[in-house]
Amino acid sequence: MRAQPEPAGAALSDGPPGPLTPLLQLSGINTFYGPVHILEDVNLVVGKGELVCLLGGNACGKSTTLKTALGLVAPRTGTVTFDGVDVTSRPTSERVRRGMAVVPENRRLFAPMTVLENLQIGAWVRGAPDPADLDRVFELFPLLEQRSAQIAGTLSGGEQQMVAMGRALMSRPSLMLMDEPSMGLSPRLVEQSFELIETLHRDGVSMLIVEQNANMALSIADRGYVLQTGRIVLRGSAQELSNHDELRRAYLGR
Amino acid sequence: MELFVQQLVNGLTLGGVYALIALGYTLIYGVLQLLNFAHGEVYMVGAFTGFFVMVGLGGPGKPIVPVWLMIVAMFLAAMVVSGLLGVGIERFAYRPLRESTRIAPLISALGVSLFLQNAVLLLFGSRVRSYDTPRYWSGAGPQVAGVQVNPVRILVLVLAIILMVGLTRLVEKTAFGRGMRAVAYDRDAAVMMGIDVNKVIVLVFFVASALAGAAGVMVGLVFFNVNNYMGFLAGLKGFTAAVVGGIGSIPGAMLGGLLIGLIESFTTAYVSANFASVLSFLVLILVMLLKPRGLLGTRAIVKV
Amino acid sequence: MAEESLAIGTDEWVAAHEGRTSGQVQGPVARTFGRLPWWVWGSIAVLVAVVLPLIGSTYLMRVGVNLGLFLMLALGLNLVVGYAGLLDIGYVAFYGLGAYGFAMLASDKFGVHLPTVVAVPVVVAAVSIFGLVLGLAARRLLGDYLAIVTLFFGQMFVEFALSGDAITVPGRAEQVDLTGGTNGITDVDRFSFLGVEFSSDRWYYYLLVVLVVLLALAVRRLDGSRIGRAWKAVGQDPLAAEAMTMPVNRLKIMAFVVGAGIAGLAGTVFAAVQRGVFPSSFDLPLLILLYAAVILGGSGSLKGALIGAALLSLLPEALREPSYSEMVFVLLLVAGLALAVRSWRDRIIVVVATVVFGFVMNLLFTLLHVQGVPASAWTSGPVSTLLGHWLFVPQDRVLWGNLGFVGLVVLLAVLTLVGTRVRPILLPAIVWLSIFVWFVRLADVPSITRQLLIGALLIVLMIVRPQGLFGRRQVEVL
Ligand SMILES: Nc1ncnc2c1ncn2[C@@H]1O[C@H](COP(=O)(O)OP(=O)(O)OP(=O)(O)O)[C@@H](O)[C@H]1O
Ligand SMILES: [Mg+2]
Question: Mitochondrion: is it a keyword of this entry (chain C) (predicted)?
Answer without folding.
Answer: no
